[in-house]
Every structure is written in structure tokens, then in C-alpha cells.
Amino acid sequence: MEIERKFLIEKENLPNLEAFSFQRIEQGYLCTEPVVRIRRQDEEYYLTYKSKGLLSREEYNLPLTKEAYEHLKPKADGIVISKTRYLIPEKDGLTIELDIFHGDYDGLLLAEVEFPSEALAKSYLPPSWFGKDVTYSSEYHNSNLSKGKSAPGR
Q1: Superfamily for 2-145?
Q2: Domain-by-domain residue ranges, the chain?
Q3: Is it the case that residue 151 has pLDDT exceeding 90?
Q4: 140 conformational bin, left if phi > 0, alpha if psi -120 to 50, beta if neither
Q5: Which residue in the list 29, 45, 69, 86 is annotated as catalytic?
Q6: pLDDT per residue over 119-134, tens digit each?
Q7: 49 in active site
Q8: Up-side HSE of residue 49: CA atoms within 13 Å toward CB?
Q9: Alpha carbon of residue 13 to chain centroid
Q10: Lowest-confidence region among 15-19, 25-29, 97-101
Q11: How wide is the angle at C-alpha 65 spanned by C-alphas 60 and 66, nearest 5°?
């Protein structure tokens, strides 16, 4: 089960990112209902299934080989999303995953925080540099962004 909150971030509010580790991510969607995604995360490759949902939803990750990923990538519908993900330690042992999008969504900044329970997710008080909470807006799901529609508020 994936339980996460998602927030827009303004570039001028970003913390200094030099101290944090990051991952380079490329992902495409073979299907958006249900979500079936392929992802390259640095040199690791995955096939992911996600159920419907906003705050929480089922998620299953399966490893792929580089060859399988490259074979499936041309079959992706819409835009193959490219982003850099910074991993920022947060209070209570949580991690902020800050995504800085490239290419078609250059300039879009989204922060996600995953939680062990819905109760913790609902009671979470985000840091002051976070912007609008878009957890309940499916428009900011990467699967919807892959369709090439401009993200709201950009």
C-alpha cells in the first residue's frame, strides 16, 4: 500500500539541494487505467502496477532488466517523463521526495512524503517551504502528466 501526500513547490522556496542525494528517473506509462508504469531509476529498472486512489492505493513493483525496459519504452503512451528526485530527510523518520521535472514539464516541482498509515498522513504538518497540497488532485499524478496535458498552476 502506498500512502502519500503531494505538494507543489515554488522554485524560490527550495532548500539548498547540494547536501542531499538524488536519483535520475525516467518513466513511461503502458496504461493509465489501471496504471502500469515502467521506470529507470539510475541503473535500476521496474515495472509498476498502481490501483486507483489519491491518498492511498495499492502499488506493486517488479524488477525489469535494462533490455526489457528498453523494449517496453517505445510502447509507452504519451510523454516519457524525466525528473531528478532529491531525497530529503524529514521529521519522524520520514523522507521528502522532491521531484524536479525536465523536458515537457521543465519547471514543475513536486514534493511527496510517504507514510506508514493514513492517520499519520492526515495529521502531517509540512515544512514551511512546501506550497499547495495537491494530494487530492489526480491532475498531478505522473500517469496523467504523461498524457501531455499542462499541469494546473503552471
Answers
A1: Hypothetical Protein Pfu-838710-001 (2.40.320.10)
A2: 2-145
A3: no
A4: alpha
A5: 29
A6: 999 999 999 999 999 9
A7: no
A8: 5
A9: 19
A10: 15-19
A11: 120
